[in-house]
Write a structure and sequence with these properties.
- The chain has one domain.
- The protein contains 1 helix and 8 strands.
- The strands form 2 sheets. A 5-stranded mixed beta sheet has the order 1-5-6-7-8. It has a 3-stranded antiparallel beta sheet with strand order 2-3-4.
């Protein structure tokens, strides 16, 4: 089973549409399908919370509670740029 670390998100007024890392990007619908099929696992950076399916959306799961850690992740950087990743609590 593949494990993915989510570092970036794209949001719309309806929630998270895409998530990804330094070299990958997937739609939220694709992530839901992969989690439900138990093919891949996803974790949110900045706290290493596991990402789970909550109805028709994805949410981070930490300490037994679904939370909005994914919403605190930065947007994807512009193509060709080199992003600087920050860990939560580290300056």
């Amino acid at each position: 089973m593949t494990i993915n670390l989510i570092s970036f998100v794209t949001q719309s007024n309806r929630g998270i549409t895409h998530v990804g890392g330094l070299s990958w990007k997937k739609t939220a619908a694709e992530v839901i399908r992969l989690i439900e099929a138990k093919q891949e696992r996803f974790f949110a950076s900045g706290g290493f919370c596991e990402v789970l399916v909550d109805g028709k959306s994805i949410r981070a799961h930490a300490d037994g509670t679904l939370n909005n850690n994914l919403l605190m992740l930065p947007d994807f950087p512009p193509p060709g740029s080199v992003p600087r990743l920050r860990m939560a609590g580290v300056r």
